[in-house]
Every structure is written in C-alpha cells, then in structure tokens.
Amino acid sequence: MSQPTDQRLQDTINDYWTDRAPSYDAYQQRPERRDLDREAWGRVWASALPAAPAEVLDVGTGSGHVACLLAGLGHRVTGIDLAGGMLDLARTHAAGLDNPPRILAGDAVAPDFPAGSFDAVVGRYVMWTLRDPDAAVANWVRLLRPGGVVAMVDSTWFTDGLGSLYGDRPDAALPLADATSIEETAEAMRRGGLLDVTVSPLQEVLELDRAHGVAPGHDVQLQYVVTGRRP
Ligand SMILES: C[S@@+](CC[C@H](N)C(=O)[O-])C[C@H]1O[C@@H](n2cnc3c(N)ncnc32)[C@H](O)[C@@H]1O
C-alpha cells in the first residue's frame, strides 16, 4: 500500500469486517434460503464466467460464499481477503468441500499473483468498499489470461453516504461507496482497462430478497453483475 493514510483506512475496513464476520456469515448461511441462493447465484456466475474448470480469483471473498459456490461448480478458485475474521470462516467453509477453494490473505486492490494467472476475477459486494477501484481493476486485468473476464456484483448501497460505518473516514476515501448509479462502477471498470463492460440487473436475486428479506439495517435493492473482458 503506497500511503500511510491508505494503510490506516484499510486497517479500519479490515477491523470492521473482522468484527462483523460471525453475524455476516450467519446471515449468508440462513437455512431457509441456502439452497435457493445456491441455485440463483449459480446461474448468475455461470452466465458471467467461462465454462468450468476455469482458474478464478475471488477478491474480498469474505466468509467465502462466492469462492465455495464457484468451486462447487467445478472451478479452481482462490479467494483473498484482508479481514482475519472473514478468512477464518472462509477456511472453515472451504474445509468441508470436495474441491475446496484456496483461501489466502491478500489485498483486492493489489493481488499478489503472477500476470496471466487467472481466467476470471470475480467479487461480490466489494467494489463499493475498495479504496482505489480504478487501480484494482487495472491490476486484475494484468492477472487475466487472454479471453479472461472480470465479473463484479454490487449495488448502490449508500447513496446518502457511508455515515459512521467505518468511523469518521470521509466518503471521498472510498470512491464508489456513495455511488448513486451502478454506471459509476461500470465506468471504473472501463477506466481500469476492461472492454465490452456490461451491466446486467439480477432480477432473480431481487425476488429472493423480496420474499425472504435482507440483513437487518438494509433495504431490498436491485443488484447488478458488471462484466468486462481483457483487451
Ligand atoms: C460486504 S463483504 C463481501 C464478502 C463476500 N464477497 C460476499 O459476497 O459475501 C466485503 C469484503 O471485502 C473485504 N475487503 C474490503 N477491502 C478489501 C481489500 N482491499 N482487500 C481484500 N478484501 C477486502 C472485506 O474484508 C469483506 O470481507
């Protein structure tokens, strides 16, 4: 990380997600929704990614929901995160699988892998909380092989600003946190060097959220998958 302020901000983010990891994970694993989620999200990712088995990097993997699901679809998955509490849970979930994802500590903005290591870079609910989304996308492009894709799921979660979510950090330090349109995410992906950037609404996920509700303190919101390909 280039600047001390970047490091302090990232430390704050990591601490927040470590504290929140158990309740976040419990919500991800709700029994009444688990199978429905697996099917719906399986369709989302299958339509966005190359055919399995592909080499996939899941940035900001959290407790490993996406990493484990993609591994279950037959991909060879590496999930990275910087929050220790999340990494512990992701490793626990991965341990029970036949084709477990590899779970590593790593920075989504600057993942430390050789160029051309992956067929796809994915992330869910991560773009909004990156301290430098443009630099992150540029780094992901370098990690892709020819024909590789980036697929990011996100929404406009904090259109009125982050408030005190991460303490007193200014919203400006996280360029997409208070985005009012998913087009801002798409633009970051274009600026990072991706071609054919496309935004697709996730209607099936919206219907699930409407039927089952969302995490306490959150509103039901349309989510999107934003995809682009390596030049
Ligand atoms: C809202 S959670 C999403 C977790 C997971 N992708 C999911 O779909 O459930 C955001 C995650 O991004 C991680 N994160 C934020 N900034 C990161 C960074 N620079 N590098 C790695 N992980 C990061 C957090 O630690 C947290 O686990």
From TrEMBL:
Domain Methyltransferase type: 57-151
Organism, scientific name: Nocardioides soli
Keywords on record: Methyltransferase, S-adenosyl-L-methionine, Transferase
GO biological process, one term: methylation
Protein name in the entry: SAM-dependent methyltransferase
CDD domains (alphabetical): AdoMet_MTases (cd02440)
GO molecular function, one term: S-adenosylmethionine-dependent methyltransferase activity
Domain of life: Bacteria
Classification via Pfam families: Methyltransf_11
